Amino acid sequence: MGDFIVAVCIIAVFFIIDYSYRGQNNKKKLMTQIKASWGQEPENEYDQRDFKGFSQLFRFLNQSSSQLVVDDITWNDLELDRLYSKINSTHTSMGDETLYYLLRTPLFNKSVLNKRLKMIEFWDKHPEERERLQLLLARYGKSESGRVSTLTGDIDFMDLKNKWLHKVLSFLPILFLPTLLIDLGLGVFLVGISIGANVLYHEKTAKHIQAGIETIVQAASVVSFAGTLQDKGPSELQEHFDSLRDMYAKLSPLARKGSPARFIFPPQSDVPDYSIFIKSVFLIDLWSYQGAVEFVRVHREDFIKLILLIGELDASISIASYRRSLENWCLPEILWADKDNIHMVMAEEATHPLIRECTPNPVILTKPLLLTGSNASGKSTYLKSVALNTLLAHTIGTVHAKAWTSVPLFPITSMALKDSILNGESYFVAEIKSLKRIFQTANQAVKCLCVIDEVLRGTNTIERIAASSQLLLALSRLNACVLAATHDVELTHILKDVFENKHFEETITNDEIQFDYRIKEGRAVSRNAIKLLKLMAFEDTIVRGADEAVSAFEQTKIWETCGS
């Protein structure tokens, strides 16, 4: 007997050592990955289903908020899906959703933005504290079966179909026990029937509420994780971790509601677990589950706050890593109180965040700006650069420029509308609606950065020029900083007293077309479209005919009939 005990003890010690070794080895591997990925661009491949999940938290919070947020049109115009993918190196689903929320919710409160920037900067300057937290986040990981932000949607699906039925059924076996003393046969029959009915009801109900159980289990795991994090915060971020502790104190009772998942995921063992049978007979797990659902319903807003608190830790580390991956970036200087400053934006060597080796350009906005130039010369890229960097200044405090100074600006765009936005409407109608929303937004307290590429491209030339000039003039009189690009040089003359003119241009030689992608003063004066026809080897009669038509129009202001 003594030898057997010694052998058992040796085996137990062996398993403990092996478990500890494996744990330490996994920890080292994870830490190696964390160190190696710092400052590197993540390799993300997301589809629309992923972004539908990422956006749940944002869309829930946006329902009841009056805050200015980036709408779907601007998000698509600026290809923010791609930018999100370049930034996102988070370790948790909460980080995924919070980062998405941050990018769509620019901050116009100086103190709140500064707190976020302080957190991002802290992780960059304190690698030991950052790596310690990253290890905890990575161990927690990302949810495979769903996101906790399921709680941001309609949670009625989690309720039992008949909330009262399980309460009645759970007492029936006990209520029938006295009949054993009166009539043993009848008592055995009634108790047996009630037990069988409860077991069948338990099994059927368990399948019906499986999705709700998974949600509750995830919610409980978030609360438990918050308990792990609450004492791991550095003193420099005390306010954030104090809020985390407050939320944990409110939500920790969820962990004491029992484990409603056990009857869906019973422990795999050859030894029978009689507690499962007892819970099935008396429907104990259903009581626990419904109690957890009611708790979540009452504390729903607290859960959302907790998700944001944990998610912001994860997202801010991801942003700090993104900064490290960049060669050209700066902290923006936002002139919060300087309302009299004539420069709405003043930037040196601004670039587009999504274009490698992007040609840097200055941004000097003292009045509305009208850009002209040919296709592919750089107009749209420039517009997007200004809009994206303005957004990044107010979200992650990371601007792709050598220097950036601006007043508080909210970016809103109307550029190349995608098919997903049209929803069966004509392009022109969709364009009008897109412009209308800019006018509605430009009446806000925060000055809008209104970026429009090719105003009213969906209609004929005469009406386009007439309507565009009036739309741009009216928009410039609102609380807005207006940037617009156009091929209609006529607009540069019509609006010359209100809009500043700048342009991009190309150089066409005998055998090639070259772009320098540098912004230049004044309106575009080069006419290279016909030269491009020649460059692309069109027949001389076509090129010569086009040249002659332009010369004739310039003299008479009348287009000659072709073929006459």
Can you give keywords for this protein?
Rossmann fold; 2 domains; six-stranded mixed sheet; elongated; 9% strand; 564 residues; MutS, DNA mismatch repair protein, Chain A, domain 3; single chain; alpha/beta; 55% helix; 24 helices; four-stranded mixed sheet
Give the DSSP E fraction (strand runs of 2 or more residues): 5-15%
Task: Report the CATH architecture of the largest domain.
Answer: Orthogonal Bundle
The residue-averaged pLDDT reads 83
The percent range for helix content is 40-55%
Reported by name, the CATH topology of the largest domain is: MutS, DNA mismatch repair protein, Chain A, domain 3
Give the number of domains.
2
Weakly predicted, low-confidence segments: 258-274
CATH class of the largest domain: Mainly Alpha
Question: Radius of gyration over alpha carbons?
Answer: 32 Å
Number of helices in the DSSP assignment = 24
Coarse morphology: elongated
How many beta strands in the DSSP annotation? 12
Distance between the termini: 116 Å
Strand order of the largest sheet: 6-7-8-4-9-12
Please identify the structural class as seen in this structure: alpha/beta
Give the biggest sheet: 6 strands, mixed
